[in-house]
Amino acid sequence: MKALCTTGVTKIYLKPEKVYWCGCPCSITTILGSCLSVTMYHPSTGMAAVCHAVLPKYRSSYNKGLSAFVDTSIAWMLDQFTSKRITKKEIEVKIFGGSAMFDQENQKGYTANVGSANIETARNCLEKSGIKIKAWDVGGNLGRKMIFDTATGDILIKKVEKTAIREASFG
Q1: Residue 95 near residue 56, CB atoms below 8 Å
Q2: Which of 34, 53, 16 is nearest to 100 (CA)?
């Protein structure tokens, strides 16, 4: 997890399994399929955070950092705000992504949708924290290009086909 702050507007490409915290204007872009981005913004100070989580719940057996998971990313971001004496009710929270990109059958023949699990985990974590989600664009079967303007808290979403996501991820 990384805190970032420089002068001027910084452009950031948020890679999977990363979280950013900004205290000054940034333009943060990411590409989402089944992954989920949770954005948090405090209008009075301009402080903002965003995650690109790939899996719903932390498990040490996955051998990934805490920012790879929806639950631990949300907890880390909330900790950043509360450490600055910003209450949870002052934070604008939005969620994006969680598409049905990679349905997988388990050994018993049940289909597991990682995107749906990511969405459910985010909603549950935020509800338990007493936070209302201000806006969302989740689910479906298309990916999304997301641009987060931390100067205003605004989000731009563009829907993209699966092939465009693969090209962006591996190109």
Answers
A1: no
A2: 34
